[in-house]
Amino acid sequence: MHQYIVTNDEMEMRVSAGRVLITGGSSGLGSAVVDAVAKAGGTPYVLDIAAPDRDVDVEFVDLADPRAAEAATRALAQRAGGFDAVVTAAGIDRCGTLQEVAAAEWERVIAVNLVGTAAVIRAALPSLIESRGRVVTVASTLGWRAVSDATAYCASKFGVVGFTRALSAELAGIVGVTLLVPGGMQTKFFDDRTEQYKPGPDARLNDPDNVAAAVMFALSQPPGCEVRELMIAGSTETSWP
Length: 241
What we know:
alpha/beta
């Protein structure tokens, strides 16, 4: 039996010239997705509170403000002439017990990770429906598995899982929807944590470029084919199972 393997070049050709909106595109996974889209011949657009380190069209916005997130998304969509895909890579965390984390900080995690994700997709939907485009939401292994001292993050990422599954049912046959579930990555995500909440010296975190490649795989599927859910982690990842 002949086995046909899709090469990286073929995958990149499928998404060439695509207009891809990336939240959190100034750092971490979002930055890796920006690079991957550009390498594939697409055009990345960024929503972030911080400036990217590359020349891309960006709207500066705090995703904790859903109305501002919607307005920024519409502004970029107008400049881009619409989107072919949206990747919601922005995410924050506040570690500690429910009693230890200030209420405003706890609620901000939910606002950025869950409410901001929904706001951006809501605002982008008209152009995505027109282009028969795709959405990739970024959850976490902690959207499937709950741990102590992470109530805000787990609540937000469990929410992203439920939101994405419902959205995929709602948009079936209209807009492709993929839930991406990454394990820990080698990014600055852990930098502002106290030592007790940082990965240990033996942590085998994944390269964000590997996760960005998984995003591109989801975006590269032919019409009528969807990657519904995709879990990706380093081979010795401890946060799952």
